[in-house]
Amino acid sequence: MRISNRLKCISEFVEDNDKIIDIGCDHALLDIYLMNNKNNINLIASDIHEGAIKNAKKNISKHALLDKIDLRLGDGLNVINENEVDTIIIAGMGYYSIEKILSNSEKMNKIKKIIVQSNTDVVKLRKFIIKLGYKIEDELLVKDKDIIYTIIKFTLGKEKYSYEEIYFGPKILSKKDDLFLEYYNKKLLKYENLLLQLPKYEIKNILHHKHLIRIIKKELSK
Ligand SMILES: C[S@@+](CC[C@H](N)C(=O)[O-])C[C@H]1O[C@@H](n2cnc3c(N)ncnc32)[C@H](O)[C@@H]1O
Question: Which of 14, 21, 48 to mutate to test the pocket of ligand 1 (most atoms within 8 A of CB)?
Answer without folding.
Answer: 48
